[in-house]
Write a structure and sequence with these properties.
Elements: H1 3-9, H2 15-21, H3 29-39, H4 45-51, H5 59-71, E1 75-77, E2 83-85, E3 91-98, E4 104-108, E5 115-117, H6 119-122, E6 130-138, E7 144-153, E8 158-166, E9 169-174, E10 183-185, E11 197-205, E12 214-223, H7 229-237, H8 246-253, E13 268-269, E14 276-279, E15 288-295, E16 298-306, H9 308-311, H10 317-325, E17 329-331, E18 334-336, H11 341-347, E19 355-365, E20 371-382, E21 385-388, H12 389-397, H13 409-429, E22 439-443, E23 449-454, H14 459-482, E24 488-490, H15 496-507, H16 521-531, H17 537-546, E25 552-554, H18 578-591, H19 601-631, E26 637-647, E27 650-655, E28 661-665, E29 674-677, E30 682-685, E31 691-693, E32 697-706, E33 711-716, E34 725-726
Parallel strand pairs: 13-20, 14-21, 26-34, 28-33
Antiparallel strand pairs: 1-2, 3-4, 3-6, 4-5, 6-7, 8-9, 8-11, 9-10, 11-12, 15-16, 16-19, 17-18, 19-20, 22-23, 24-25, 26-27, 26-32, 27-28, 29-30, 30-31, 32-33
Helix pairs in contact: 7-19, 13-14, 14-18
């Protein structure tokens, strides 16, 4: 670069940063925006390049940077192909969120209020696309409305859906109902798929103002009701990586099936300690093992966690694949693991009676459950037994149930005493303990649901939970005190709006939440304790739970509101959660006297939070479909249930004993105009004053089951036909 060229580029305030990142640094994005703003008008790419003294050999890289800035909504080109600064155009960038009825919303990047997109605007895009819009006023319902100016990034290259034919025209209807356009399939591009079959389609023409999307069939999944089809659909609908590349499987298999002697060097040997794993009956990957003994008047608790970081190293094929997946996904009868089975179910799994590498949190606690000390160290261990929650609960109740594990009974009893101490400490801390019902599907030999049963949490579940919480807190404290950046598991308290709504709701019941404008978890816990014996306790608890925000991963340590911890992270499940693997690497780095930096912690937190939500949505889709399928032979039958959700279009009702939810549409509530009261979670009849509120009991009849939309419709029992069948 000659002296003249240096003159303007030396003014770039981020020049040093660019030098660190690139061998031949370009002007930073910030400097480009500053120069563009200085022009005061849109300018051509040629004039911008000339002003920034871009040399010929830099042209391709510079144009690539401009394209990236356009994709991220920082600049755009107008009709004359001149470059504009988006902030000067009063444009808003964000992500499209589609609605099954054809309209949509723009979710702005900057977190401002959502903007309404009409059905005409949604014809140009798919759900998930990133776009730039201009606000154009309000629609007839008073919503801020926008028009799409430019599509920045297409989110969907492949979709899963069902193939149809009408008037000799083939098209695919997407399984994701937020994608409202049918995708046309040209002649010869259907791969031999038959109408009605489920297929994966590759988009070859994205939607636009004047054109429907066009695609080609690239995979035939089969018929809609085939066993396991609901999972195949969910995997593709939510873009879950589900096939490990050959190189990743190969890398995992290179480690062999056993721990080699040289791998134990430099580790503490705790193989003599009777560590045990305690998990559910169907578990196949064992992240954690525990051991407890008395220490003075308190306890020594060892939580040993699979040392995944020994095998999955930064930048490796295994690491890149694990990051993309973010976590394992647990469907009924199928798991999509974060790591290949050679690691997840074998070498990293703390299987009984074999040596395994682990990272240990070795804690000492006093008789009140307060931490006296803790330390972390890499170790080699040998699990003495694979126990289940059911087995441990039985051993605690009746020593005779310890048959085959009698030698372990003393330490199981000590673990149970420690659990009692930690449970009391949890109460003193003010942690919130919502009583929720988890369910499990029981399948027959044909893969169909036989029944849905509640999962009964016993003291063995709670014992392990408290041990894991203790290790997670110590990991968080250790890294925080070491000055090591990490992903915390954060859970913020209620927003001011949700807090106000909650208090307005509680006031209707003569109740109040203490704590003023900044309540603590113990204020929630105290209120839960006050209402636990009330007949409407479930209603009140549900509304309290919905007032809280979702837990996420973030490098900003704002604490965990629900657990009442000032600092908290995830350390105990590195086989199935990528954030835990990052925590292990950070601990290993600190123990070695260094620091761990995987890149942008904020972006990593956002990615891991997103993959967690993706997994939750996929499993929810599968469970909803399976429940619908199970209910197909129950049309016309009557059940008792509880209103579990109130919306402007009706009531969601959760049925007793069978744990299935369906909708009573507002049109089925009676001859009246019903109005939705969001703050009080109720619908009220204008003429009759009839009220339906969250938590109310209803008798309903199953009216319709729609497998394609995974929806179940109920009608009020009084409205059902006289020929209905009773459950």
């Amino acid at each position: 670069m000659n002296k003249k060229m240096k003159s303007i580029r030396l003014n770039d305030p981020h020049l040093e940063r660019e030098k660190e990142k690139y061998r031949n640094p370009l002007p930073s994005r910030e400097f480009i925006l500053e120069i563009l703003a200085g022009f005061g008008v849109p300018v051509s790419a040629e004039r911008l390049a000339e002003t920034l003294e871009i040399e010929p050999h830099e042209t391709d890289s510079f144009n690539h940077r401009l394209r990236a800035m356009a994709r991220d909504g920082q600049i755009m080109r107008n009709r004359k192909d001149a470059i504009c600064v988006v902030d000067k155009l009063d444009l808003v960038t964000g992500t499209v969120q589609g609605h099954p009825e054809g309209f949509g919303f723009l979710i702005p990047d900057e977190g401002a209020g959502d903007l309404y997109l009409s059905a005409n605007e949604m014809h140009k895009v798919f759900h998930g696309d990133r776009v730039m819009v201009r606000e154009i006023g309000t629609d007839r319902r008073g919503r801020r409305e926008a028009a799409i100016v430019e599509v920045l990034e297409r989110a969907n290259q492949r979709l899963v859906g069902r193939l149809y034919i009408e008037h000799s025209v083939l098209f695919v209807v997407a399984e994701d109902k937020r994608i409202n356009q049918d995708i046309l399939v040209p002649p010869g591009e259907h791969l031999g798929a038959q109408p009605g079959q489920v297929v994966t389609i590759e988009i070859i023409e994205q939607p636009s103002k004047r054109m429907q999307p066009i695609g080609r069939v690239v995979e035939i999944l089969g018929n809609y009701a085939d066993p396991g089809m609901e999972i195949e659909i969910a995997v593709r609908k939510h873009s879950l990586p589900h096939v490990f590349p050959h190189g990743v499987e190969e890398e995992a298999s290179r480690f062999g099936g056993v721990v080699r002697p040289e791998e134990c060097e430099g580790r503490e040997d705790i193989r003599h300690l009777p560590l045990v794993t305690i998990d559910g009956e169907t578990a196949r990957d064992f992240d954690d093992a525990v051991f407890c003994e008395e220490s003075g008047e308190g306890f020594r608790l060892i939580v040993a966690i699979a040392d995944v970081s020994h095998y999955v190293t930064p930048g490796s094929s295994l690491d890149r694949e694990a990051l993309e997946r973010g976590n394992s996904v647990y469907f009924p009868r199928r798991v999509i693991p974060m790591l290949p089975e050679a690691l997840s179910n074998e070498l990293c799994s703390l299987n009984p009676h074999v040596d395994r590498l682990c990272m240990v949190c070795d804690m000492k606690l006093d008789a009140e459950g307060e931490f006296l000390s803790y330390r972390f160290y890499p170790a080699v261990m040998h699990s003495h037994a694979r126990l289940t929650y059911t087995k441990v609960a039985a051993m605690l109740e009746d020593p005779a149930a310890a048959e085959g594990h009698v030698a372990l009974l003393p330490q199981i009893r000590i673990l149970y005493r420690l659990y009692g101490v930690l449970a009391k400490a949890r109460t003193r801390r003010g942690a919130i303990d919502f009583e929720t019902i988890e369910t499990q599907m029981v399948f027959n030999d044909q893969g169909k649901i036989e029944k849905i049963v509640p999962v009964i949490r016993n003291d063995a579940h709670r014992l392990i939970e408290e041990c894991m919480l203790a290790a997670n807190v110590c990991a968080s404290e250790f890294l925080k005190e070491s000055g090591q950046a990490v992903l915390y598991r954060i859970h913020e308290g209620p927003t001011p709006e949700k807090l106000e709504n909650l208090r307005n709701f509680l006031r209707e019941f003569g109740l109040d939440l203490k704590g003023g404008e900044d309540p603590h978890a113990r204020d929630y816990a105290a209120l839960l304790s006050r209402i636990k014996d009330r007949p409407d306790a479930q209603l009140l608890q549900t509304v309290m739970l919905r007032s809280l925000r979702q837990a996420i991963y973030s490098p900003e340590n704002v604490g965990h509101f629900g657990l009442a911890y000032e600092t908290y992270t995830h350390f105990t499940s590195p086989i199935r959660r990528y954030p835990d693997l990052l925590v292990h690497r950070a601990i290993r780095a600190v123990l070695s006297g260094g620091k761990y930096s995987p890149g942008n912690w904020t972006q990593l937190g956002a990615h891991c939070s997103a993959t967690e939500r993706r997994a939750d949505e996929a499993t929810r889709d599968v469970e909803s479909w399976l429940k619908c399928y199970w209910m197909t032979d129950k049309i016309g039958m009557s059940f008792e249930g509880t209103i579990s959700g109130v919306t402007g279009f009706g009531l969601f009702v959760a049925l007793d004993e069978i744990y299935v939810e369906g909708l009573v549409h507002i049109s089925e509530l009676g001859a009246d105009y019903f109005h939705f009261d969001h703050a009080l979670h109720q619908i009220v009849g204008e003429r009759t004053g009839k009220r339906f509120r969250l938590g109310d009991r209803l008798s309903i009849t199953v009216a319709r089951v729609d497998l394609e939309t995974s929806k179940i419709d109920f009608i009020m029992e009084s409205e059902a036909s006289s020929g209905k069948r009773k459950k």
